[in-house]
Amino acid sequence: MAKKKSYNQRDETSGEFESKAEALAEPNNTQRERRRPLSDSGRLYNRLTRAIRGLAYRSESPDDSPLKVFKGSEVSKSGLTKEEMLAQISRAANTPIEERDFNRLFENIVDDTDAPEGERVGKLKSLMEANLTDIHVFVVPSKSKAATKKVFIVGIDSDDNVTGLRCGGIIET
User: Fold this and answer.
1) CATH of the domain at 117
2) For residue 106, what is the DSSP state?
């Protein structure tokens, strides 16, 4: 009966590891598959995530609503319409939805860090304009609270997915 090798008994011909730490550090096939390069959509998601840190949407609610990245599915052939957006967020077709001006919306985004006023907000806006087409701002009533709304700043990314930002808990009069 052959003696089972330990991690410390590395055999150059069989490829055993010198230590358990070395063996654990070597990625297995599953880990290698996870290290595939990100798609353009994945890189944009990461860039948006970094860009919105510390940014919030200012409304009449007691607290500003933090921005979050929104990642939808592939857009239909009709493009990014109000009906398509309602389908992306799993809402009924008769749900009231309004569209707002993209440029004016950024007036309500605030930076809670010490960055110069508007600098990061301007960079976020430029990032979205450079990486998304057919950009829209949709405002939808919240399911849970009648007085609040959700804002979606979305467009179509290079992989034809609906991508952008969202924030909830907005109160407007």
Assistant:
1) 3.40.1460.10
2) G
Residue with tokens 């804002």: 151
Give the pLDDT confidence score for residue 166 in this predicted structure: 92
Residue 7 domain-assigned?
no
User: What pLDDT does residue 10 have?
Assistant: 45
Contact between residue 139 and residue 97 where contact means Cβ atoms under 8 Å apart: yes
Predicted model pTM: 0.72
Inform me whether the pLDDT recorded for 133 exceeds 60. yes
Provide CB contacts within 8 A for 44, sequence distance 6+.
131, 132, 157, 158, 163
Residue 160 lies in a domain: yes
**Adjacent-strand bridge partners of 163:** 71, 155
Asked whether residue 125 carries a pLDDT value surpassing 80, the answer given is: yes
Q: Which domain holds residue 149?
A: 40-171
- Reduced to 3 states (helix: H, G, I; strand: E, B; else coil), residue 116 is coil
Find which of 33-47, 107-121, 150-164 is predicted with most confidence, using mean pLDDT.
150-164
Q: Is 32 left (phi over 0), alpha (psi -120 to 50) or beta?
A: alpha
